[in-house]
Amino acid sequence: MAAFKKSNVKIYANSGPNITPDALYWKKLGVPALVKEFGSIDYIDFSPVEPYYFAVTCSVRVQIYNPITKIVQKNLSRFRETAYGGTFRSDGNLICVGGDECQVKLFDASSKSLLRVFKGHASAVHRCFFTIDKTHIASFSDDKTVCMWDIPSEEKVSSFAEHTDYVRAGAVSPLSSDIILSGGYDNIVRMYDARVNTSVFNVDHGAPVESVLFLPTGGVFLSAGGTEIRVWDAFAGGRLLAKLCQHHKTVTCLCLASGNKRLLSGSLDRHVKIYDTSTYQVVHTLDYPNAVLSLDVSPGDETLVAGMVDGLVSISRREENTKPTTQERLKVSYRYAPDDLQTRTVDNIVPEEKMNLMSKHDTCLRKFQYSKAVDCVLIPVVTNKKPAVTVGLFQELLRRKGLRAALAGRETKSLSAILRFLIKYIGDYRFTRTLIDVANILLDIYSEVEHSLEISRLLQRLAERVREEEQLTEELLALQGALQLLLSGASMGETDRVDNLVDSSTMQPSLSAKSNFVVNIT
């Protein structure tokens, strides 16, 4: 005899996030350890050599942490005022730090000794980086200048003063020691060549620039400011390649990960977005308890560190599965056992039969007791916690053409339970289509019947609820039309490819579901 097929409720299940390889990869980062500092975390930088210590610049010191123990290994505190932008050299031996003292200081990372002090700026130095040749430092200051310093002679080699506002962002080319990139609060990103002592070209980001970053090829760079990240082609004189608009507050920091195949951006909206650098699509999102000011990832993606505006440092380290598998445990257990004690492979494992329990409404369906099945799914426990079960039963009765018989002949109490369920869930796009059919059948049955005062009030509330949903649908359609008009105008005025500006398709499921509101309530 064929088994009874249960009513289907899985079609109403909420759709969860897509399980992608990137989601699985970044979820392997363990529960973050939170370390409290005394001020906002200005900058985080990982040493490029093992054991991959990371420097946290905060207040009047730079602290070097061990990523495994998550404790401070060294403390650079030779500052009278706030320090900014502590950065390791490519060999991990030296650290350069700017600050409110209008100087760039050079430290030995192992001995903490102060080796050089580069003086010449007139205002705070927020960023400084070593060039690829390891013998020069580029500094970016609030005095609107960009300078290049020679480490052995402690002299200024070049100076650029083309910005008209604070210069808070900078980067050095990964291929040439003469190419420098700067971003200022005048919305301009400039590329300089130290050989000609002037800017090669400049681009307008459209907002104060908080961070700039070279991709490993050196021919593409990114600028972050406002809620946008823009991708530029340096070889084409600063041609715009893409716009990334995934944050709703200011983007504060950028960094590369996964062998430069992933781009991470931190923002004041408490999110870190992870992009695929080949398509610039978001592949994963990380959430933090407060606004993110600084961010960096260790080589190999072993450790992810984020600094926040309230002084919290979030340290997430990748969890490796060190538990041996079942086969490995068997190998260890029987490695030195005699032959007669080895596990045998001739044993037959009989699977345990699990009883297929059937719910009450399915039992009633099996006996063709449709009215009683509806009563079973209208109890408060089901309607409040599992409304998909109730809607699934309604859909099954519609398929069997037994819903009219199940709803007919009901008293005030059971009829009011059905109406309350319709009022509560008819606006849910997952259930709208089915509940509209239920409401129409219910009104056809009881349109000629005299109702009690309670039923009349519930019918009036149902009518108001439908009118609210109709009004909401009209407003959403008007909004969709306005967005399409804006997007079409932007596409006509800008010929470059713009990725991820506005995804107007996110409202389509609800609009398509809500556009079917036709309930004959008189």
Write a compact overview of the structure shown.
This protein is an alpha+beta fold and 522 residues long. The chain has 11 helices and 28 strands.
Number of helices: 11
Tally of extended strands? 28
Rg: 32 Å
Mean pLDDT: 85
SS strand fraction: 25-35%
List the helices and strands and how they pair.
Layout: H1 21-27, E1 33-36, E2 41-46, E3 54-58, E4 61-65, E5 72-76, E6 83-88, E7 94-99, E8 103-108, E9 114-119, E10 125-130, E11 136-141, E12 146-150, E13 155-160, E14 167-172, E15 179-184, E16 188-193, E17 198-204, E18 211-214, E19 220-225, E20 228-233, E21 239-244, E22 251-257, E23 262-267, E24 271-276, E25 282-287, E26 292-297, E27 303-308, E28 312-317, H2 326-333, H3 360-366, H4 370-377, H5 380-385, H6 387-400, H7 403-407, H8 412-425, H9 432-446, H10 453-493, H11 508-514
Antiparallel strand pairs: 1-28, 2-3, 3-4, 4-5, 6-7, 7-8, 8-9, 10-11, 11-12, 12-13, 14-15, 15-16, 16-17, 18-19, 19-20, 20-21, 22-23, 23-24, 24-25, 26-27, 27-28
Helix pairs in contact: 3-4, 4-6, 6-9, 8-10
Would you mind describing this structure in some detail?
This protein is α+β, with helices and mostly antiparallel strands and 522 residues long. It has 11 helices and 28 strands. The protein has helices spanning 21-27, 326-333, 360-366, 370-377, 380-385, 387-400, 403-407, 412-425, 432-446, 453-493, 508-514; strands at 33-36, 41-46, 54-58, 61-65, 72-76, 83-88, 94-99, 103-108, 114-119, 125-130, 136-141, 146-150, 155-160, 167-172, 179-184, 188-193, 198-204, 211-214, 220-225, 228-233, 239-244, 251-257, 262-267, 271-276, 282-287, 292-297, 303-308, 312-317. Helix 4 packs antiparallel against helix 6, helix 6 (387-400) crosses helix 9 (432-446) and helix 8 (412-425) runs parallel beside helix 10 (453-493). Residues 322-345 and 501-516 have low confidence and may be disordered.
